[in-house]
Design goal:
Elements: E1 4-11, E2 15-17, H1 33-40, E3 45-51, H2 52-67, H3 73-84, E4 86-90, E5 102-105, H4 109-118, E6 123-127, H5 130-138, E7 144-150, E8 158-159, E9 169-176, E10 182-188
Parallel strand pairs: 1-6, 1-7, 3-4, 3-6, 4-5
Antiparallel strand pairs: 2-8, 7-10, 9-10
């Protein structure tokens, strides 16, 4: 069975995005290439589950980097990896895109993700997409939670676990960085 890992930046007070739509909700993130490198070292994913807001933000950010001959090589490499991954997008509005390997669903997320887990392939990632994280958490379909705790109290924003039932987790790794970010990995308690 394929493993699903959720990866999100979170503020110390539990928000995964700000309310600022102009920045895609990422205005308080403390970017650190060392964190990116560390997070990238865990497992290999060939599929990415996204909601339509996160998908649109990723597409508008990463496709231009991929097509920019002057883009930072590290960012360009990540843009290529995202492009090569199968993107499973849940949306009532989006039906198609010119971004390669994008697949759209407006049906039952639980059924689609269960079939995806039972299929062939590498690990599956969920990034951003708070509503999807909440639904998959309540259905016990996420196997690992990876948080990049950002050194900020946001004060307001989009809570990552709104309306989620209690779930026990087991800490499997923690690593602090000079930037103040802390990466914490948890698996679902058995």
């Amino acid at each position: 069975m394929r493993k699903i890992t959720m990866l999100n930046h979170v503020s110390i007070d539990g928000y995964f995005a700000s309310l600022n739509q102009m920045t895609g909700g990422m205005d308080w993130f403390v970017h650190d290439p060392k964190v990116d490198e560390y997070v990238h070292s865990f497992g290999e994913s060939d599929a990415l589950i996204l909601g339509d807001i996160t998908y649109k933000m990723f597409q508008s950010s990463w496709v231009p980097i991929l097509n920019d001959p002057n883009a930072d090589p590290g960012l360009k490499k990540f843009a290529q990896e995202l492009t090569d991954m199968k993107k499973i997008v849940f949306s009532k509005d989006l039906k198609e895109s010119d971004w390669a390997n994008s697949e759209f669903h407006d049906g039952n997320i639980t059924d689609v993700v269960r079939k995806l887990k039972e299929g062939d392939g590498k690990e599956i990632m969920v990034m951003g997409s708070g509503t999807i994280v909440q639904q998959l958490t309540n259905e016990h379909l996420i196997d690992e939670y990876m948080f990049i705790m950002t050194p900020v109290i946001a004060g307001e924003g989009k809570p990552l676990f709104k309306d989620v039932k209690q779930l026990g987790l087991k800490l499997i790794d923690v690593k602090p960085f000079d930037s103040g970010n802390v990466v914490m990995r948890y698996e679902v308690g058995k």
